[in-house]
């Protein structure tokens, strides 16, 4: 039963983008099949504006929201690097501070 204390978990959300729906699906499926992620949401057609190699760029991308654990984060990062077509793929993680106990357990049980 939850109380008012600050609660921190070992669960993480990891974010990356892909240049196509096919690439996003390939990365998402591989992460779940390898049991590095419990779930990956693919948010279609986000617009990214960024500076790369000194130039302003704009691109349509697909955002991946990856649910995983701190224990396998390095393996998630390595898999993204392996599977991605970008020279420098985004790989940013943030901690999940709290959540439904059942859902957090499902994440843990789904990730090796």
In helices, the fraction of residues equals: 25-40%
Number of helices: 3
Segments where pLDDT lies below 50 for 5+ residues?
A: none
Named CATH topology: Alpha-Beta Plaits
H/E element string? EHEEHEH
Q: Main sheet: which strands, in order across? A: 2-3-1-4
- Gyration radius, in Å: 15 Å
The secondary structure category is: alpha+beta
Oligomer: single chain
Q: How many domains in all? A: 1
Shape: elongated
Percent of residues in beta strands: 35-45%
Give the mean pLDDT.
Answer: 93
Structure summary:
The protein has 112 residues and is an alpha+beta fold. Helices cover 30% and strands 37% of the residues. The protein has three helices and four strands, in the order E-H-E-E-H-E-H.
Name its key features.
112 residues; alpha+beta; Alpha-Beta Plaits; 4-stranded antiparallel sheet; 3 helices; 4 strands
Folded structure, characterized:
The protein has 112 residues and is α+β, with helices and mostly antiparallel strands. It has a single domain, classed as Alpha-Beta Plaits. Helices cover 30% and strands 37% of the residues. It has 3 helices and 4 strands, in the order βαββαβα. It has a 4-stranded antiparallel beta sheet. A hairpin with a 2-residue loop joins strand 2 and strand 3. Helix 1 runs antiparallel to helix 2. 24% of the residues are buried. The model has no long low-confidence stretch (mean pLDDT 93).
């Amino acid at each position: 039963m939850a109380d008012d204390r600050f609660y921190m978990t070992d669960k993480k959300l990891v974010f990356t983008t892909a240049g196509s729906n096919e690439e996003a699906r390939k990365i998402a499926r591989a992460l779940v099949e390898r049991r590095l992620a419990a779930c990956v949401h693919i948010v279609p057609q986000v617009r990214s504006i960024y500076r790369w190699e000194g130039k302003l760029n704009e691109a349509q991308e697909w955002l991946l929201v990856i649910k995983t654990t701190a224990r396998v984060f390095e393996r998630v990062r390595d898999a993204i690097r392996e599977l991605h077509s970008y020279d420098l793929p985004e790989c940013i993680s943030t901690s999940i501070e709290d959540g439904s106990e059942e859902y957090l357990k499902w994440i843990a049980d789904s990730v090796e």
